[in-house]
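Hi R.,

Here's the chain you asked about this morning:
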Amino acid sequence: MNAKESYIYRLLDGTDKKFIVPVYQRPYSWKRANCELLLSDLMTVYRQKHESHFFGSIVYVTSNIGGRNEYLIIDGQQRITTISLLLLAIRNYVVEKHLEIDINPEKITNAYLTDQYAQNDKKLKLKLVQGDDDAYDRLIENTDPVQHNAVTVNYNYFYEEIEKFSPEEIKGLYDAVMKLQIVNISLEPEHGDDPQLIFESLNSTGKDLEESDKIRNYVLMDMSAKNQEIFYRKYWEKLEKEISREDIDTFIRYYLAVKNRELANKNRLYFAFKTFRKQMGGDIEDILKDMLIYAGYFKSIRNAKDEDKDKCSLVLARLNKLDVNTSIPLLFDLFSARDNGFLDDEELLKAFEIIENYIIRREICNLQTNVYNKLFVSMGAEVSGYVEKSEVGYLEAFEYAILSKTGRSRFPNNHDLSDKFLGFELYNAKPAVKKYILERLENFSSKEKVAVEEQIDDGTLTIEHIMPRTLTKEWKDALGENWELIHTKYKDTIGNLTLTAYNSDYSNLPFLKKRDMDGKGFTYSKLSLNQYVKNQQKWGLEEIEKRAEILCDLAEKIWWMPETSFNPNEEDEWVAWDDDYDYTGKAIVKMRFMGDVIDTDSIADAYRKININLYTLDPAEYAQFDNCNHNSDKTKLRNPYELSPSMYIEMNLSSQSKMDVISALFTYYDFGSNDLQFLVKAKKEKVAFNIDDESTYSSVTAGQLAFYLISKLMENEKIEADELEKLKTKEYSRETFPKIVYPVLADSRDANRGKSSKLRYRKTPVNYKGKDVYISNEWFDFNRDDLISWYKKRQGV
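And the predicted structure, written out as tokens:
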């Protein structure tokens, strides 16, 4: 890094110079107030005869391109652009007014604004970002200005202010510009200067960049100016057009959630993207291409409308109304599965509906929504795991995954729904949910659709309490001696709510007057929600319960419960500390703690080792954790375990209590899901697979069987080297195993992946004559007989 004091005019002066504001920088954004302050400071310099005025720093990277020095501006674009505009305004005013003062307009033009010896298309010394560049060029060329652009607006301000000055003041202003002192900082990447890190540091204070701005800068900064232009226009500009500037941070957050299987903090997307980029490796262009694909999914979700004819779009429009944005990562996974051939359009529609049904059933059953962040992010990977291991269809695996959730994450069944439906206070639900549920109940079984939500919004329809919110004496008498209990418990519930255009007419009139009011009563209503109501002779507890029962039957049809016969073979699985997981009948055999794999033999052992590690990490911080299950005095614990002579933990706890303490500890330390995971194993014994006993082959999946059999042949060198190479081709693999999709063997796990996020080969390679070979996991039950026959033939059986 080379830093020195200089004057801004000296930086601008000279031939063969080009100052480039990279496309990843924000557009020129100085406001009028900034320009007013600059002008005021400059006039103070002139009037008080100051020798200089500090104007900040200009940070850049220089490179020689075809004999011309290019200055890539890392920081200071706002200042250098503003001074260029002010000089241009001074030049134009002096020329247009034919002022005879000691200012040389040609020098301003040739020394500071243009390079008179450059080629025509390269004469302007300052190249701004898209939009700004055109506005600046038109000002220089004195053609039609770009209206409502900050470049044009600020130039006009300077020109108008200069008009108010005397010739002596204009000369004084110009001289003051020549006294603007800067710190001229030239970065030298070849000597270790990292422009990206310096950019981050310079932007760590002041007005924050959007996370997407930082990501764009990170993607483009290391490229040449030419490649920056190409990549910006080819990818990032398209990304912003697909999504809109307002939504791009949201999109990136959910895109990264699918890729990393963790929902990043909104304010740390940039760092999450950097981590993702390093983990992926390869060419950044592949990531940008992939982002554009997902941007298309995001656009389909965001732009879905009620009037769309596509059925999938109709479901997405309803999900948008529910405002459960956390479902977007799972929707991304489903779109990707469709595009990669795992789902057809009908299956995609069904999967979307299942998500909708899951959300609404949980809303009616008053189940927490804070489980969605983790659940909707992780489920796509879970489904892919089932498909990979069990050779099941994607939709069936998806249905199993969502139905298998327990506890706070569960999918409420029909019993849960009917149990909670009567007491569901729809009136107190969120406005969007309230309108959505009433619209679905009204229109589901009717061919004549009513625009319920729109008519509620414009006041045509209102939500009516059949039993009014304020009871008259007549209503109390009609409800009977338990009127207060009935009213308190059921007034806002779904069984007592309907829609009407005559809410103000009904007020708190008796039921029969509401029912029979001339031309306005329930009797005259064509709304399906009022069909049961219009046939009742009174309205009380019995009628409310009966109507709730009828509507509940309808709700079970609208928000139907998926079914699946799929039951995956239970295998070991990794579970995060904050998963809603039932450990009943399970054993923890390993844990991953902050990157380290630690063997354990029980929940108690895991509990003990976690506390040891956390205490060792920071004893003082650990001691601040307010929990009755650790103490510096071991006599206060029933069964103490010593972490140190001054800290003990209680071991006399149930397994669930131990897991609760672990959860509380990791919440206290603000650790993420990936910081602690358990390898969970079912305690029940499985049928043991024996490669020498063909009768046990059915105890494993076709993919596992293929791995065992092919591994055995390779280890015993029963496959010749030339056949091994042939098995890496699709043609020979299909000839050997009809209907197989991908080559049986590969040199890397990433082989034959294409654009899919799915890996085609098993994680563990087999070493064959000193070289790792990967075995396909894309096997199905109809391959078993061919596989076993091929194995036996090579074994000489």
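Residues 694-795 form one domain.

Let me know if you need anything else.
M.
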